[in-house]
Design the sequence.
């Protein structure tokens, strides 16, 4: 039986830290579904279609083992719908763990068949987040070593008027 994980997130934009989690997650799972969560409460820089395209382009070497999708609703329900065995989550710091631990417990209560697996982000990416990267880029900071090349290009286009 194929081992499938859902890697949910906003991915606005995808970072090298996200890439790192997928790359290492593929050593554990046969397939990872990178799933963009639709969150109307968040003001996104990129549309879901733009984010899917950037994910596909930046992770094209994994195309046989990684799928890209978007969803609305509970992650644990989406994981069950896609017949995933686990929800894959990246952790950078203790503050991430507190929130993620609570979510994992709630997901476990909602569906005991879906496991949550935490991977520590590589030390190289421990300080990066999509929001910090967007903030730096907005004010002209060099982010090229923190994001895939396609993302760097697209962020520059978005902030060209600043």
Sequence:
């Amino acid at each position: 039986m194929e081992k499938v994980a859902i890697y949910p997130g906003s991915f606005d934009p995808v970072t090298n830290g996200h890439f790192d989690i997928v790359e290492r997650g593929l050593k554990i799972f046969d397939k990872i579904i990178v799933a963009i969560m639709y969150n109307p409460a968040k003001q996104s820089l990129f549309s879901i279609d733009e984010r899917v395209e950037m994910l596909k382009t930046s992770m094209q070497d994994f195309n046989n083992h990684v799928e890209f999708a978007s969803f609305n609703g509970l992650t644990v329900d989406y994981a069950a719908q896609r017949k995933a065995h686990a929800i894959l989550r990246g952790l950078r710091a203790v503050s991430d763990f507190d929130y993620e631990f609570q979510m994992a417990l709630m997901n476990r209560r909602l569906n005991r068949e879906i496991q949550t697996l935490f991977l520590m982000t590589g030390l190289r990416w421990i300080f990066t987040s999509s929001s910090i990267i967007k903030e730096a880029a907005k004010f002209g900071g060099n982010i090229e070593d923190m994001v895939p090349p396609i993302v760097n290009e697209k962020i520059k286009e978005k902030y060209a008027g600043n």
Remarks:
- The chain has one domain: 4-127.
- The two ends are 51 Å apart (CA to CA).
